[in-house]
Amino acid sequence: MKTERIYIFKRFERFWHWSQAALIVAMGATGFEIHGTYSLFGYETAQEVHTTAAWLLIGLWVFAIFWHFTTGEWKQYIPTAEKLGAMIRYYLTGIFTDAPHPFRQTTLTKHNPLQRIAYLFVKLIINPAIWVSGLLYLYYSDWTALGLGGLDLALVAFVHTAAAFMMAAFFVIHVYFATAGHTPTAHIKAMITGYEEV
Q1: Is 174 helix (H, G, I), strand (E, B) or coil?
Q2: Closest alpha carbon to 67 in 130, 11, 6, 24
Q3: How far, in Å, CA of 168 to CA of 21, rounded?
Q4: Are 113 and 80 in contact (CB under 8 A)?
Q5: Which domain holds residue 187?
Q6: What is the CATH number of the domain that holds 65?
Q7: Cβ atoms of 8 and 105 closer than 8 Å
Q8: pTM of the model
Q9: What would the pLDDT profile of 123-156 be if each residue is shown by its tens digit?
C-alpha cells in the first residue's frame, strides 16, 4: 500500500504539545508529592517547582488560545457527529482486528470526531478547573481581601485534585492512542516532524 506524507502539525503546535506535556508531567509529579503520596524532591522544592510550572503552563495556555483564534485553528476542535459511530467501533474492536481507520487526516481536519470531543473537554472543563482552583489555592491567604472569604478551601482542593486526576487519565489515554498508528511510533514521529504518513 502506498503511503504519502502530509504536513499536519505546524511548528508552534509541536512546541505547544511537547512543552505542555513536560509541564503537565512536572506538575503531576510535584502535585502528588505535595499531597504526600510519596517523597522525592521534598515538600518545599516540590511546591516551588509546581508553582513555577503552573505559571509557565498558564502562560503557554494563554498564548495557545491567542494562536488558535488568530490562525483559525480553533475550528479543529468543533465537535462533529460525522463518522463518530465509525470511530467508536474502530476503537472498541477495529483497532484489534487491523480494520482500516475510518478517518483520514488532512491539514484542515487534524482530529477525528472522538479526539475533537476529548480535546474540547480538556480545553473547556479540565484546564479551566485546574487553572481556577489552582489560582484560588495559591492565593488562599488573600481570599478575604478579594471578597472570597465564603469559599471552602476543602472544596477548592477537591476540585483541583479531581481535575488533576482527570488530566492524568487523559494523559495516559492520550499516550496509549499515540501508539495506535500504523506503527507504534508513527503518531509520535508526526508530532516531532509535523508530517503524518497516510
Answers
A1: helix
A2: 11
A3: 11
A4: yes
A5: 5-197
A6: 1.20.950.20
A7: yes
A8: 0.87
A9: 999 999 999 999 999 999 999 999 898 899 999 9
